[in-house]
Amino acid sequence: MKLEQLAQDPRVTVRRAGSPDSAGSAVVYWMQRTQRAADNPALSVAIEAANVLKKPVVVFFQLVPRSHHANLRHYQFLVEGLKDIAEGLKKRRVGFVIRRYPEHGIVRFCASVRPCLVIGDENPMLEAEHTKAKVVKQLRLPFWTVDADVIVPSRLLGKEHYAARTIRPKIHAQLRRFLTPIENVTAGVLWKPSSKFRSLAPESPLLDGFPVDCSVGPVSGFCGGSTEALKALDRFIRSRLNGYAKNRNRPELEATSQLSPYLHFGQIGPHTVALAAQRARAPLQDRRVFLEELIVRRELAVNFVRYNADYESLKSCEPWAEKTIGAHARDRRKILYTDMQLENAETHDPLWNAAQKQMVLTGWMHGYVRMYWAKKILEWSPCAADAYEIAVKLNDRYELDGRDPNGYAGIAWAIGGKHDRAWGPERQVFGKIRYMSYESTSRKFDSQAYIAGVNALEKRKVT
DNA sequence: ATCGGCTCGCGCAA
DNA sequence: TGCGCGAAGCCGAT
């Protein structure tokens, strides 16, 4: 294997070209989005490059406050995952350096390591892209990034896709090539830690004295880390994949994988999940439906965020949606709630309140209810642009998987008709945006049971 | 329980 | 240029 071959892997983007300096001391993998030591294509590229160069590999992880407006809930989950990374990297003979604000800089770290090459992982979110752009300017080193958290490298899709039906055949055509096990290669040269590259211990109280937004507390139902993620995957595959197609849209049941927090932080990768589902002994229909959501719809969301720079606002939506929303901008709203009333789950609608409470209390809301939740915010807001904004704000603040392409795509679908189509008959406020009602959702699933379930959870929390 | 109509525009066949 | 068909819907008819 040659370095040029590695650079030509479709998962790899060369952000700063140049031949790796063979006088350098190591290959540095700057781990951001892909927080795992196994089935991590970015780590594999780093190790393979280092093995060609006959150098060791060190993973650099930085703890930066207020990254993507994250709060204590998110940081706690993230920090819980660091121990698994440390253990996994040790097995692969790779070093691990954790630094915390204000000693967190990758540029400073590279100045002391003098790497041959720096590898990063891909993240379509704008803030992550800006951070990388800034670092590229300062690093006088070759810098590659690896698209490690999607099955089909997002670059190969080339443009923003209009709908699931346009991206689906493109993705399916690439699965044979990309839905394959990630090789967990081991470093040939062992990284030897020295005092010069001191690291914080992953199990030390990393958040003590760290300037993090504590207004949203940690949750008890989800524990971060790759080990927990694999356990959750195993439970899902063994007990819930069978029947998934039928039950996934029944939020009163525990029928979904609940892997989104782990996928968001990269503590588990889509290859691991997809291959486990593919080889599971569940009916074909269940496996198909799950893989459609995990791969086609998840990667449609990544495609949206990557190719539509307006994903944080209603501006990201299609002309037909803009038109119909505009035509109904002056419709009288029967009910208006303030941001506070929404945040405190103080609406007249018990299903909506339950959804909001599930999110606030557990850090996770059932996928089907998320649609309803967002559509009602549109119904109860002065305008669609405000609705989009408050939905994003609440989602990003309380969901463990907030600040993720999935959240933005979901809100854009519900409020702006993204990836959807016009639906008649035209209604107040919604216009031709697809509508959902309490009455009809209650026909589809046992909303009383869902509401009761969340309320029981709330009582247990209070007492 | 299941079906058709509602409605728009992309992507492809022709 | 025409045509098929679609990320989760609703409603009313059968």
Global geometry: globular
Secondary-structure element sequence? HEEHEHHEHEHEHHHHHHHHHHHHHH
Low-confidence stretches: none
Q: Please report the number of helical segments.
A: 20
Kindly name the structural category.
Answer: alpha/beta
Q: Please report the distance between the alpha carbons of the first and last residues.
A: 60 Å
Overall mean confidence score, pLDDT: 94
- Helical amount among residues, as a percent range? 40-55%
Cross-sheet strand order for the largest sheet: 1-6-5-2-3-4
The strand count comes to: 6
Please describe the biggest sheet, giving its number of strands, its sense, and whether it closes into a barrel.
Answer: 6 strands, mixed
Instruction: Report the portion of residues in β strands.
Output: 5-15%
Radius of gyration: 23 Å
Keywords:
7% strand, DNA-binding, 47% helix, globular, 6-stranded mixed β-sheet, 6 strands, alpha/beta, 20 helices, 463 residues
Write the layout of secondary structure elements.
Blueprint: H1 3-7, E1 12-16, E2 27-30, H2 41-53, E3 57-63, H3 72-80, H4 82-91, E4 95-100, H5 106-113, E5 117-121, H6 126-138, E6 143-146, H7 164-178, H8 226-239, H9 244-247, H10 260-264, H11 270-278, H12 284-307, H13 319-327, H14 339-343, H15 350-362, H16 367-379, H17 384-398, H18 405-416, H19 438-444, H20 447-462
Parallel strand pairs: 2-3, 2-5, 3-4, 5-6
Antiparallel strand pairs: 1-6
Helix pairs in contact: 7-12, 11-12, 12-18, 15-20, 16-17, 16-18, 17-18
The chain binds a DNA duplex (14 and 14 nucleotides) through helix 7, helix 12 and helix 16.
